[in-house]
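Hi R.,

Here's the chain you asked about this morning:
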Amino acid sequence: MRTARFPLLIVAWFAVFAGPALAQIPEGTGNAAPADGGERKAAAGDKEEEHKPPDPDTGKSTLSHETLGLLPNPFETRGLKFSASYVGEVFGNPSGGLRRGATYEGRLNLAVDLDFARLAGWSGLSFHGNVFQIHGHGLSRDYIGNLMLVSSIEAVPTTRLYEAWFEQKFAGDKISVRAGQLAADTEFITSKYTDVFVNSSFGWPAILGVNLPSGGPSPPLAAMGARLKAEMTDQVTLLGAVFDGDAAGPGTDDPQIRNRYGVNFRVNDPPLVIGEAQYAYHQKKAEPGLPGTVRLGGWYHAGRFDDQRFTAQGLSQADPNGTGAPARLPSNFGVYGVFEQLVLQLPGTDPRGIGIFTRVSASPQDRNLVSFYADGGLNFQGPLAQRPNDKLGIGLGYLRISDRARALDRDFAFIAGGNRPVRDYEALAAVNYLAEVRQGWTVNPNVQYIVHPGGGYVLDGGTPKAVRNALVFGMRTVLKF
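And here is the predicted structure, written out as tokens:
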């Protein structure tokens, strides 16, 4: 169990203590203008935005000035910046799910960013931290039971520390290291065209949220770790990270309860390693063609995972002659790919246009409840000429229950002689319209239709229960102060 501590501490040391020396490396082009003088397209700015301190509520950076202008920042020129945003939303399912109902939930996000170049003359070093205050109740947890959660902010009510990390940049900002309590969903397996959607799976895909311990390093639980980013060329970027593999630690209750305040700071669990290669093309205005990005990556977890059908004795978990306790299998992994492409740029405008995206991921059948995941859709920015910052999104999601888990369902149905459903898949269709009321204030009416919640049944009081497809209506508002 001590293997996780070594790589985490080494990279953290590298970020904090090796930074000053590395900062003396002569700068390359970095974020400067391209040597050919060509302007960058909006896509290039979006790509750079991905690697700044993330505001999980707006899709922008906490360094962005696209706010209501209500929060004073008198010390920003000295390197100290505060930001605050609030998400409030209502959801209801008039049909389907475990039961009909409606919920309100909200999340206040308070963040601080420190630029040590201004504060102390330490070039390239920065700090980012933020705290969530979560309240209300989630529709998926209380009324539907689906795996692709209706809302990206659904969580157990609490006040918790989320991220807290240092970052050291060097070589003209082409290389950077982050170390501390980190989230993975803002940089890995991402597409900028998913920002219009409120369903959680369009952020951190459900295959990872379901299969990884404590849901993996994503809202509402970040994990201790370190991330290395290297911009090899203007087109190619490499990302790699190592995280503690279980932000909440082992246990049978809800991980959010085990790490209720976000201060467990675990480093001794088997590690989770993620790597990704990105290729971005046609990013400059001088280049012909529309911009797009391809991402290929994978993850590996060194822990142990439950067999989805068999016990350690080789019997089905449904067999009354066995213990019923699943066999423990060593390690786990997954692969994924992301493709996004601007397919229509409206003439004379920037950023109005239509972008499409798709993401796919797969993991082993024997130790994962979800073995395959895919989503995709389109994002139409500026559907109305007089409202260029509005966005219309249409998205589809699909996850497949693994063959091993489905076989266990059949075992229970055969041995118990009942009519227990056999899970197969869960699917999602979503339509969202993100409207900018004014700078720093958006509203997002949305409709979601969930097919086969839970993959075919939902545990209700510990008993498998088949539920009808769920129709969900929602309204989200985001205020960035």
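One quick note: Helices lie at 5-17, 19-22, 42-49, 116-120, 139-144, 206-211, 255-258, 403-416.

Cheers,
M.
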